[in-house]
Amino acid sequence: MTAPFETVHRSGYVAIVGRPNAGKSTLLNALIGQKISITSRRPQTTRQNIAGILTSLDAQLVFLDTPGFQTQYRTGLTKAMDRGIKNALSEAHVVLWLIDVTANVHKDDELFARLKDAAALVIAINKIDRIDNKNKLLEHIQALDAEYHPKAVVPISAQNRLQLDTLIEALTPLLPRQEFLYPEDNVTTASVRGLAAEMIREKLFRQLGQELPYSTAVEIETFEEKPALTRIRAVILVDKPGQKAIVIGKGGEKLKEIGTAARLDIEKLVGGKVFLELWVKVKQSWADDRRTLDRLGLS
Ligand SMILES: Nc1nc2c(ncn2[C@@H]2O[C@H](COP(=O)(O)OP(=O)(O)OP(=O)(O)O)[C@@H](O)[C@H]2O)c(=O)[nH]1
Ligand SMILES: [Mg+2]
Which CATH code fits 192-295? Predict the structure, then answer.
């Protein structure tokens, strides 16, 4: 029986964890129905926790997208990324472990096994659009169930938005009964300015080759939002002088492509025209520089 004044609302934090590239950010965006977390084919795209808020009539699920655990590039930045996962876990009422169905079993999976002692554990098997053998999927679900005893195992496709309602139905009853944590119309805790920097960083991840994206960061220098036009001036930090020329490209072509793609995303975000000015600056070892990381909100 419910106490007379107990709220009917459920509300709480769901930390999305999993190996790099599992599709965590794609899932967050699909759940919220808006792009707030950047995605790419490369592992370790996400650098900081991003909260996406999904509010229905009687429940509010606050999803925390986390960076994949860092196994290479030990810098001040990657250490902060690992701390980000731990912070998300300490706040979470539910841990949602996302597994890429196409990836092989990996020693890092052990890292997630220890999460089962934390909050309630739900496992989602992602990218089921990539597999034909449904029997294999069933076996996979049963094996995970037997090994980790989660509250539920839900096969999904974040990209094709398959089974997301089933996932939400599995998560909601695991949240405590309490009033909403955020106003009902909020979709994220991130600022528009912070999201704009991320949209630019996404293009660096998508359009630059090899190791270069990992050597870059984006800093917004000015952000003037007016009804007719939002003016943004942003700096792309690179680690070494040679990288600057690559980001700019022949005749400035590369930088122009990056700027155009980012501008289109930011226009969707602010719902209006954007003038985006991009500069490239060399700042050696920025990923180990405390002050730069502080300024970028990455410490
Ligand atoms: N086929 C398929 N691809 C997907 C699905 N979900 C995500 N992807 C792709 O998987 C890649 C990685 O997606 P992200 O969302 O960036 O993965 P992430 O787990 O956030 O990665 P990190 O931030 O690097 O830890 C991207 O190329 C996505 O388009 C899915 O359901 N099906
Ligand atoms: Mg991500």
Answer: 3.30.300.20
Most confident of 95-104, 142-151, 162-171: 162-171
What's the topology of domain 10-174? Rossmann fold (3.40.50)
**Segments making up each domain of the chain, as ranges:** 10-174, 192-295
Local confidence band at 75 (pLDDT 50, 70, 90 cut-offs): confident
Burial of 77 (0-12, 13-18, 19+ CB in 10 A): buried
Among the bound ligands, name the one nearest to the CA of residue 43: 1
CA of 33 to the centre of ligand 2 (A): 16
DSSP 111-171: HHHGGGGSSEEEEEEE-GGG---HHHHHHHHHHHHHHH--SEEEE-BTTTTBSHHHHHHHH
> Pocket of ligand 1, candidates 17, 21, 126: which has the most ligand atoms within 8 Å of its Cβ, to mutate?
21
- The Cα 136–Cα 120 span in angstroms is 26
Distance 69 CA to ligand 2 centre (A): 11
What's the pLDDT tens digit per position in 186-241?
999 999 999 999 999 999 999 998 788 889 999 999 999 988 999 999 999 999 99
